[in-house]
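Lab notebook, entry 359. We have the chain sequence and a SMILES string for zinc ion, and the next step in the workflow is to get a structural model of the bound complex before anyone spends time on docking refinements. Request logged below.

Task: model protein plus zinc ion, output structure tokens.
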Amino acid sequence: MISPATISAVFAAADIIDIIGSAIQLKRKGANHEGLCPFHNEKTPSFMVSASKGIYKCFGCGANGNAINFIIAYDKKTYPEAIECLADRYNITIEYEKNTQAAAETRDTKKEMHSILKYCATQYEAALYGPEGQTALQYLYGRGYTDERIKMWGMGFAPLRDFKYITNPIINMGKLSTAEEMGIVKTTNGISRDFLINRITIPIHDAQGTLTGFAGRIYRPEDDKYPKWINPPNSLIYQKGQQWYGLHTAQKAIQQQGFAYLVEGYPDTHAMQDNGLTNTIAPCGKEIAEEQIKYIARFTRHIVFIPNIDANQSGQKAVLKHINRFIAAGLRTSVIQLPHSNDADEYINLLLNQKLQAV
Ligand SMILES: [Zn+2]
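Result returned:
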């Protein structure tokens, strides 16, 4: 548990205008500040912030609270997460109560996991543009990715390199056990090797934009015998139940538009978001966990399904199965049925230009 001293220090340091002002645009109005409410859709501001009282209130939807409540509601954080986030922002050292030594250790492990992932991201991105990544890079160009888009989505390449492209440096850094714990390095019979090998890598972030793992895709026809995609295993920092791909970039648009497009895969998400349909997310993997549905309900109550254009009968049944589960969880659902086409850009243009009606 975070110590009461830390909590009071955070409350004392939290500047509500600074905190809310970095999320939405605020304008001074008399003694207060006003802006467009981030919790409901509006064109004229009814959202007021009082610096002297340290509170906000929306006269449209009734949302109200202090700086901590705002972080919890806007960034979808728990109370301790909000305190940690603000402590970080105002350079306050967090003290934990003694009986939670284990919690502090978990925190250190998470920190090390994040640093390993950051290292991997740099290595994978470098490899894509190195000699080993040439075929993968050409494959991405062939799929319509430009250098700019590749960079924006942080795509990279996990080369073969004796199965130890990232394993060897991680061993040298003394971080093998943490890397094993998060599944980025696999050890069997005493032999350690990379989890992702000879695949295009796509970084996955949580809703706050923190890197939590990598998915890997095959890119050569001769690898068709392997799974097309590999997703990260569950770990301290990656829980499939709390993971929706694209959510950190989609979040604001989902809030503004009041719904999320749900597509099937990573490239679909890229194509949609890059074409202005920013409120698009995808599950990480084919299955959608019960917790994932509960988690997305924190962000929106309306999901618009876009089943894959080449979806066969079984694919459509799978989508329908998911829809029922979303409905059972109290969400509103719609489906956009796309005409058969193999070109992602084509159907996005249809969505954008002809404004297909959800059915
Ligand atoms: Zn409001």
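Notes for the group: Residues 37, 39-40, 47, 58, 60-61, 63 surround zinc ion (CB under 6 Å). Worth checking against the assay data. The first strand starts at residue 27 and ends at 29.
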